[in-house]
Amino acid sequence: MENVIEMRHITKVFPGIIANDDVTIELRKGEIHALLGENGAGKSTLMSVLFGLYQPEKGEILKNGHVVQINNPNDANNLGIGMVHQHFKLVHNFTVLENIVLGAEDTKHGFLYMKNARKKVEEISQRYNLKVDCDALISDITVGMQQRVEIIKMLYRDNEVLIFDEPTAVLTPQEIEELMQIMRDLAKEGKSILFITHKLNEIKEVADRCTVLRKGKYIGTIDVATTTKEEMSEMMVGRKINLTTEKTESHPTDDILVVKNLSVSKKGHKNPVNNISFSVRKGEIVCIAGIDGNGQTELVQAITGLMPILNGTILLNGKDITHASIRQRNVSGISHIPEDRHKHGLILDYPLSYNLVLQRYFEPQFSQHGFLKFEEIEKYSEKLIEQYDIRSGQGSKTIARSMSGGNQQKAIIAREIDKNPDCLIAVQPTRGLDVGAIEYIHKQIIRERDEGKAVLLVSLELDEVMNLSDRILVIYEGEIVGEFNPKEITVQELGLYMAGSKRGDTNEKAV
Amino acid sequence: MSDILFLFQQTMFFFIPLLIVALGGLFSERSGIINIALEGMMIIGAFAGIFFIHFFQQSMDPQICLLVALLIAGLSGTLFALFHAIASINMKADQTISGTALNMFAPAFCIFVARLVQQTQQVEFSNTFRITKVPVLGDIPFIGEFLFQNTYITNFLGILILVLSWLILYKTRFGLRLRSCGELPQAADSAGINVYKIRYAGTLISGFLAGMGGLIFIVPTSTNFNADVAGYGFLALAVLIFGQWKPWHIAGAAFFFGFMKTIASAGLPFLASLSIPNYFYKITPYVATLIVLAFTSKNSAAPRAEGEPFDKGKR
Amino acid sequence: MKKLFKSEASLNFASSVTAIIAGLIIGLIVIIIANPSNALNGFLTLIQGGFSNGTRGIGQVLNNATPIILTGLSVGFAFKTGLFNIGTPGQFVVGAFVAIYIGVEWTFLPGAIHWLVAIIFAALAGALWGCVPGIMKAYLNVNEVIASIIMNYIGMYTVNYIVPLTVFNINKNETLPVASSAVIPQFGIEHLIPNVNGGIVIAIILVIVIHIILNKSVLGYELKACGFNRDASKYAGINAKQKIVCSMMIAGALAGIGGALVYLGGTGKCLAVVDTLAPEGFNGIAVALLGLSSPFGILAAGLFIAHLTIGGSLMQIYGFIPQIVDIIIAIIIYFSAFALMVKGILANGFHFKKKPKVKEGQ
Q: Least CB-CB distance to C362: which of B115, B279, B293?
């Protein structure tokens, strides 16, 4: 069969990370080709290379057998390659039609001439069953319809290679169903589709072939019809090298953090957190496992007070903190190692010592009569630096921005643990760190558990999940879809739950 | 009746320049560049235009002189706006700071040049531009009296610019692209549009219109130019906000603001009997804008990408 | 990494100096074009500025610097907390009016505190003017730049309306001079520099106070945290909205005091009723940018700009026009705006992350 696109031996390096390492992928005419991999496997980078957003260090791209140079999206467009980005590039106060023609407008006597465009859009819309209202404003239509506009945008430009970057992440189940049908129709009409995903069900449903990437490397291309989901899951997650951290059996006692029927809403989208209930007990590590973007961020921000909730209750030590301020939560026993240490965790332009008292500067230990007690802050900071082995150029006075990522994270962990919380919430605490730092942080978290703290860990790394947790809750599309004992489940099986292709009946179990 | 006529014609003196300058701001802000330098651009434009009139009005037909002066005013404003564009687009500078710098530069520069050339800072001119009566049209009863007697060519120009602005923004390819750059430059970029070029165009058009607006403000209301347009650039900014970044709304806002200014400065007999202090009319536009800001903040019509430098490398 | 940080601090300073040099060079070019034969003398006079007239000149520099140090502090303080206070002209003028009103009318106050009371009320008036954009920003997400500009005009027109009804000198179209008891005492520095106003002492005290607030107090810790990173300060449990209002009120108070210090200075200067925004307000932006928003930097920048201004007026001996100084200041601001970008690149370069996009409604 004829290959429309061949990407040969693509290597793309970003400072400190090889995003694509000698990856080869072939797209046949009229096929739906899935690109499967975990977060950070290099799928999006590879597609960005194809769309001209990045230039690869090595490798070549062939279109219909000829080597082509794609320097920018315009080049891609001229070659008939279109992309639906994860974040739609639609102007909110333009009509559907205006968005479609933007950049490829017809004019007559110097004025915009939309008649032909409208006709063409209507044709496309009928042919592929893409229902849109040409005159509706983008801000007034659903996310699903916005996606259809993006698809029509590609078809309007007569693109024949269509890239979809995680197209189902923002859709409701019905909309996903519709999208699958649209993709099938498109393929039938001879369009070739590349489809980034980590959802095995969707691959099974629509894809002809599937290329799997793991940690930037090419793992293999398989025929979807003859491969089981289990096999694909294994290819995706691999056989993990176990960084086992020693830990004893947990002996959980009382409930510390109880979340009941929690929902968080987001304007124009379905609820990112939908009716979640669970509890974390004294002396256990409960891990929320899931693929990025399934509501973890919102769940944690709702618990810590950074995000308003739609409904539900949150109890800490039996006390209702649903409506407590962030400060009240901070002082009444919640510690939070945030997902994004630069956005939430640190004030990068402040010295280390200031950062180490970020939620405590107002306590009598550190301030008096409205003035900071520098010596006390310094002393405390030196103590933490010593105790947690935080390396920095000028000790307490080091500006946080100039510290390495690992030491920034250590500083946050020191600060959060030293607050002596009842409940420690850690979100991807080892993200982007080297093995040494990871091991250290894992030990600290286990020590916290052993000292009788309730630990809620949110992680995208299955290694971490398997290693640390005493109980695993799998989150998928804002809901808890399964609760497991790490000793009784394999990584592969966990992968199936995380990818939404298996679902336990959970809510009763999880509470 | 004569009161109303007088009021109407006076209002035009304030309405037209406010309209043109606010439309200038519209082009810039719709392309994504905040322009608080409208005041400075007006001053530069007025200065260049009046200077031309000062030297050439003896030797030219007044209407032609005015038209050439308007062109010069517009071009000087454009040149001045170039500095804002370089700072905002290429240098990715804070657009408010760049605008502030231009606002400080303009009057100082004009006084400097004026005194260098002619010792005094006021540039004198005589107002020979009033059209007593437009032939034929001026004879139409009522309408003729209102629109085509005791008028200025600039009044018609202002209306023309309003219609053109609306046409350009909403009916042309350029307008569609310009608006997309102010809302979501990433969308424009991915559709193959050069965001930098469009933003340059928006900023330069705003300089042209503001420069011209400066001259249009000075000509009917004064006989000399003293490097000052009395805060009309900032008022035009308020008009732009009050008009919610839409041409016809801006026209309405400019008329309302111009009307308030007229009442404040002209002191009409029938309003004098109400004994409302001038002060009230002077601050009404500003207070009204503040209230509009407060009420529309949740659903602001401001271009979403306004003030954000666009960086092609970042996605 | 350590080196990088150090170089960032020095880059900050270097960028200010570069902006000043660029401003002066372009100024020099303008001077040469204007009058080549006197250009050198003129430029030297400009540079010599306040040092031309012995202690008298120094006194003048101090007096001219006083209001712009205060408006500079106002802008700089707001900057430190992530806000652009372009409302200094309005805050300045309402402060000035309130000070003059009290200075003229409240003669029942004993001389020892009359001037102090006037200053305090001026600060309150400025704070009131500053808190309007602050509240709108914090609770309605209205861009503080726009709201501040509007408040400038409301302030100016309000003062111009009230002056003729209260403390008006109709012959000169300005306010009445304040009572002698409302004049700020010279605190003994007149023995060193005879023509100096007491205002500079208050300005320096406030520089120190603001330095202490920003760098030593809990409030300063919170305000700067909000300015550096609003998300992280929220995470830390700081009430960012309250801090925005608080910051704008302090900024407004400083500009208001600036207005008071000019008209309580004992120079006999009175507030004229003209529909023009107070230039001291906008000059504060230049001062704050040059002083990198740090209180002592602002003190130095204020003195520098006052020094140049005196130089500019002395240049008139050689037939130059004093507005050359405003041109130079404007160019300095313009180049300072570029410097922010250079710093931004550096910061983005090494923390490797796009700055979170802060969308502000209008």
A: B293
